[in-house]
Write a structure and sequence with these properties.
Structural class of chain A: alpha/beta
Mean pLDDT of chain A: 96
Oligomer: heterodimer
Mean pLDDT of chain B: 88
Radius of gyration of chain A: 21 Å
Strand content of chain A: 5-15%
Largest sheet of chain A: 11 strands, mixed
Number of helices of chain B: 2
Strand content of chain B: under 5%
Helix content of chain A: 40-55%
Shape of chain B: elongated
Strand order of the largest sheet of chain A: 1-3-2-4-6-5-10-11-9-7-8
Order of helices and strands of chain B: HH
Low-confidence stretches of chain A: none
Number of strands of chain A: 11
CATH superfamily of chain A: Amidase signature (AS) domain
Shape of chain A: globular
Radius of gyration of chain B: 17 Å
Order of helices and strands of chain A: HHHEHEHEHEHEEHHEHHEHHHEHHHEEH
Distance between the termini of chain B: 41 Å
């Protein structure tokens, strides 16, 4: 049964912000609601590494006092948010999910955290992740994160806690970081909305790097509107991150009204109909494509034959970048890494230079193929993942041979890494559920800096699908 | 190309001053062989046709 407190917790951040402005709820009420939910649910879900109870309540009281006098800080005044523990927070433990950083307390906020605070947001805490945002962690040093739709299943990664906290309504909105799918994968598995922005759209200052040439910070929320709201606040040039673009930041929420009518959308056959794609996912995504056509989009199938190479190419490039960064710690503190992370990093560190250079050239080819397709179409459509959330035990089984290693580590990554390799924006939005009750998701990729189009199409689908408001059983009262 | 075994991995890792145990070496050999196979398959692509231009946030047309 739904209670008023649950209804408030599951409401979108944009809606909650309106309620605060209208003085129908208070920031203290909202923070207290989430602290209560975290207390009841997070012992099992393990979304949080650190909960900032005292500071969140103090900030809520201050926001409430300011609201009483009409002093509004910004669009998130009094809205509780939480961020992946890969993002620096001044005076607050920031572990990147690793025991190696168990005592790391930064002196400065990351740029994205500073921007959300400046907009009036209240930091509720730091969210769990796979170690160093790399994926494949076998033993989580800060607790095993669990999927709120079925706690025996994986919540996705690397932004695991961000997906859980958004889907289970443990805060109003979250931030993750996406190198090869680390925002989109947990969004897909947990039934949330997750956006990877164009490379260069959002500052990475204060974000522990996974792979510098692909890392991007992005929102995970319960609605497309909230993702648009957050992106508008965190996007833009930052002198502290020289890779950020000076392009103007559009009003992404206003852009939602454009909808999907007249957009040309290409369905990537290698991903929708590929042998790795489970039947329920294929049917759900095809059904969503038909829904978008009903809304006025023009749908066509497209073959992008380089896409199946994307997973292996991405892993070689991402992991070798990461192995370079971790070389000193791998040599001097190897036992402090999770065994899965250590093996992943060392394997990539041993790839010879010539094959690695081949991967870099293949990346350029894949990027060229994607950008050519986006020259003819406004959006590319695919499943976010070939399957729903697997059981947690899937990841802990031993690796028994090279064929199994390729299937396990490269195959599914070919679904999310094309956007990463090309540097284009991509969103994951729920498109249904399996018979077993696990979420499945649609992915839309757009042209560089065309987040407005991506969000407008995702929003139109979300409105038509009527999936907003479904609550994970574990997170319901 | 012949697959690498755990002993090969231990020697390669030692050359980079990376301490490894035997259990790690066995799985790393599987992972490394998977990488080498996947990257060898790229030889069939027209890799010389493209330039390796750097990713630039404003470099898109």
């Amino acid at each position: 049964m739904s209670t008023a407190a649950d209804d408030l917790a599951f409401a979108g951040a944009a809606r909650q912000a309106s309620l605060i402005r209208e003085k129908r709820i208070s920031p203290v009420e909202l923070v207290t609601t989430y602290l209560d939910r975290i207390g009841r649910l997070d012992g099992r879900l393990r979304a949080f590494i650190t909960v900032c109870s005292e500071s969140a309540l103090a900030e809520a009281e201050r926001a409430q006092a300011e609201a009483a006098t009409g002093a509004w800080r910004g669009p998130l005044h009094g809205i509780p948010f939480a961020v992946k523990d890969q993002l620096d927070t001044a005076g607050i433990l920031t572990t990147s999910g690793s025991a190696l950083l168990k005592g790391n307390v930064p002196s400065e906020d990351s740029t994205v955290v500073a921007k959300l605070r400046a907009a009036g947001g209240i930091l509720m805490g730091k969210l769990n992740l796979t170690e160093f945002a790399l994926g494949g962690t076998l033993r989580f040093p800060y607790g095993q994160p669990r999927n709120p739709w079925n706690p025996e299943h994986d919540p996705g990664g690397s932004s695991s806690g961000s997906g859980i906290a958004a889907a289970a309504a443990l805060c109003s909105l979250t931030l993750g970081e996406d190198t090869g799918g680390s925002v989109r994968s947990p969004a897909s598995y947990c039934g949330a909305v997750g956006l990877r922005p164009t490379w260069g759209r959002v500052s990475r200052h204060g974000c522990f790097p996974a792979a510098w040439s692909m890392d991007q910070v992005g929102p995970l929320t319960r609605t497309v509107e909230d993702t648009a709201l957050v992106l508008a606040l965190i996007a833009g040039y930052d002198a502290k991150d020289p890779t950020t673009s000076r392009r103007a930041v559009p009003d992404y929420r206003a852009a939602l009204a454009a909808g999907v009518k007249g957009l040309r959308i290409a369905v990537i056959t290698e991903l929708v109909d590929g042998a790795d794609t489970q039947a329920e996912v294929r049917e759900g995504v095809r059904e969503a494509a038909r829904g978008l056509a009903t809304l006025g989009a023009r749908l066509e199938d497209i073959s992008l034959p380089l896409i199946p190479h994307a997973g292996g190419v991405f892993m070689a490039l991402c992991d070798s970048e990461a192995a370079g960064r971790h070389k000193l710690w791998l040599a001097t503190r190897p036992e402090e890494y999770d065994v899965g992370t250590r093996r992943r990093l060392v394997a990539a560190g041993l790839i010879p230079a010539v094959p690695l250079h081949r991967a870099a050239r293949a990346r350029a080819l894949i990027r060229e193929q994607i950008l050519e397709a986006l020259g003819k179409f406004d959006l590319l459509l695919a499943p976010t993942s070939p399957h729903p959330a697997p059981a947690i035990t899937f990841h802990t089984a031993p690796v028994t041979g090279k064929e199994e290693a390729a299937r396990r580590f490269f195959g599914r990554r070919s679904y999310t890494t094309p956007a990463s390799l090309a540097g284009v924006p991509a969103i994951s939005v729920p498109c249904g559920f399996t018979a077993a009750g696990l979420p499945i998701a649609l992915q839309l990729m757009g042209r560089p800096f065309a987040e407005s189009t991506v969000l407008a199409a995702a929003g139109a689908w979300e409105n038509a699908a009527g999936l907003v408001g479904r609550r994970p059983p574990l997170a319901a009262s | 190309m012949a697959d690498l075994g755990p002993d090969d991995v231990l020697r390669l890792a030692a050359s980079l001053s990376l301490p490894l145990n035997g259990e790690d070496a066995t799985e790393i050999a599987h992972r490394l062989n998977a990488f080498l196979d996947a990257l060898a398959a790229l030889d069939a692509l027209p890799l010389e046709r493209v330039e390796l231009w750097p990713t630039r946030p404003d470099g898109y047309a």
